[in-house]
Amino acid sequence: MRIVKKAQAGTMQSSDLMVFVEPAETLTVEIDSTVKKQFEHLIRQKIDLVLATQGVTTGKIHVTDRGALDYAIEARLETALKRGGEV
Amino acid sequence: MADFRLRRSLLYVPGNMPSMLQNIHLFECDGVIIDLEDAVPLNEKDAARTLVKRFLENYTDRNKEVLVRINPLQSKWGLNDLKEVLPALPDGIRLPKADTPEIVERLDTLLTEFEEELGLEIGRFGILPSIESASGVINVIDIARTSTRIFALAFGAEDYTASMEIERTKGGEELFNARTRVLWAAKAVGIQALDSIFADVGDMEGLRRETELIKTLGYTGKCLVNPRQIDVIHEVFAPKKEEIEYALQVIDAIKRARLMGTGVISLGGKMVDAPVVKRAARVLRTAHAHGLVDDIIDEEVIYGAE
Predict the structure, then answer these.
(1) B141, B179 in Cβ contact below 8 A?
(2) Domain residue extents for chain A
């Protein structure tokens, strides 16, 4: 899948996150999180896994996390990619 | 009634809110209805169904019945809701705007197709039709007979009053006929009837009164919008101590009657025969489900051996 336009998914409620995606030459993932210190590596791991599963190799991904669990991270990123991507 | 699953309280959980979804295992209700319909704005329908799918896949140690309220099949979202959430194995689908037997039949067919595709037992997914319009109320008797997947009928008072162009009152007089008709339809085919939500979360007395009313009419459960309402509903549906004691006496009495070769006996001056025994057995089954009595009454006690 290729990111072809700007898109976002999620909310700023607690236990949720917002994911912003946009087209770019290379792949970058930025993470802001209320629990960044403890969990950034786990959030990144989950995001990398979803990107790999979806075959996304380029694009700018920005995540603002409000303490979301894995299933929510996966779901919101999938939705953002579906909204901004093209298979 | 083959299905004695307790459904006193079915809590609505908005499908697009992780903070509520991930607390589902903590709520002490009998079941939840994860909502993709009214609780989700139009531009979030896609996000909600993906969130619900991923949530259900991770909610593996299920500790209550899980239903998903999809968007109406007549809308452009309903079918995609099914496609996305069924592989994550909810127990059933709450079908909004179940106004005609045809629309319920359509869901039944779709569920069968999904079950075949997913390699599941046919009939695994249940259907809870929402009777929530004038047409729904008129057609409910046929709707109830449409599919063996239907384990209960749900009356939706909010949409019903909207379709009637009337206000919903706390007394509920305006709902009486519709509520009764939904009950007849359910009881005639031996399934449960579940009542509408009570929207005023601050009014626990009102909730109690309404729950007592619908229990008296014959409803076996109620839908709710806030976990704070669970306790009141369970209190109302729990058989009272006196009811249980009387039911046990009735069962004793009928056992004595059978020994004497008769099907009718007097208990404290009141006649006890098959319908009385049946009601007592139902009280004891409910009490058993509440953990208030140890034994379940078997059919032979109710009807006698041949």
Answers:
(1) no
(2) 2-86
What does the pLDDT profile of chain B (306 residues) look like in tens digits?
345 688 999 999 999 999 999 999 999 999 999 999 999 999 999 999 999 999 999 999 999 999 999 999 999 999 999 999 999 999 999 999 999 999 999 999 999 999 999 999 999 999 999 999 999 999 999 999 999 999 999 999 999 999 999 999 999 999 999 999 999 999 999 999 999 999 999 999 999 999 999 999 999 999 999 999 999 999 999 888 899 999 999 999 988 888 888 888 889 889 888 889 988 988 888 888 777 888 777 777 777 777
Class of domain B9-237: alpha beta
The CA distance from B38 to B225, in Å, is 12
Count the Cβ atoms, other than its own, within 10 Å of residue B15.
Answer: 29
ipTM > 0.90, yes or no = yes
User: Which residue is closest to A15 within chain B, CA to CA?
Assistant: B19
User: Under an 8 A CB cutoff, do A83 and B46 touch?
Assistant: yes
Cβ-defined contact of B54 to A79 (cutoff 8 Å): no
pTM of the model: 0.90
Chain B contacts of A13, Cβ < 8 Å?
Answer: 17-19
CATH architecture of A2-86: 2-Layer Sandwich (3.30)
B74 interfaces chain A, CB cutoff of 8 Å: no
Q: Taken in order B110, B114, B119, B120, is the CA torsion positive or negative?
A: negative
